[in-house]
Amino acid sequence: MTLKICYNNSCPTSTFKSTQVLGVTGIYVCKACISTCYECIGLANNCTSCYADQNREKVGTSCVPMAGFYEASVDVAAPCDSNCLTCSGSATKCTTCDPSMYLSATNVCVTCSSTYVGCLKCTSVKCTLCESNYELDPNGVSCKPCSSYSAYCLTCSNSKCLSCDTTAGYIPNADGSTCITCATFDPKCVSCTSSGCMGCVTTEGYFLNSA
Question: What is the number of domains present in the chain?
């Protein structure tokens, strides 16, 4: 085996300055870094930088798999399954999941919406964020559809309908319990707020009674 030597501190990349060549001032033996270290200092496993093509990053003095990759007993870290944010041991053994999924007892990422209808973010035991046309149920576990207030309710929160299908002429009523049309106040009312009529069918001779 050819002995690698360096003069002063100039060892080649992926090697480090080791012991001084006996009796020779300024000449040292260069030893190889471990295969996952691009550069190291003092010790073979004291990494100072990592290989760009091994899917690794430096943590402390080691080059470890980046998020989304795992240690596969080879220099190049292998990719996790697309459902896993991070994994360990195999591509399908997830350790963390996307916020739209939760980690099951068998280390599989399960979509929130498949367990809780209308759910965007969740844990293994409850939904924490619902889609815009749902709200968290008072039980604090699942999502309740806004349509439970009215077929025309589009968004809701805190047990109230917040917006209705205006293209169909609906608005929330005063307490947010349902959606109403202006005709709720009067058959000839054409514009209104949740508290009352604001305008009538003037072409038919109707006007707003201010009394």
Answer: 2
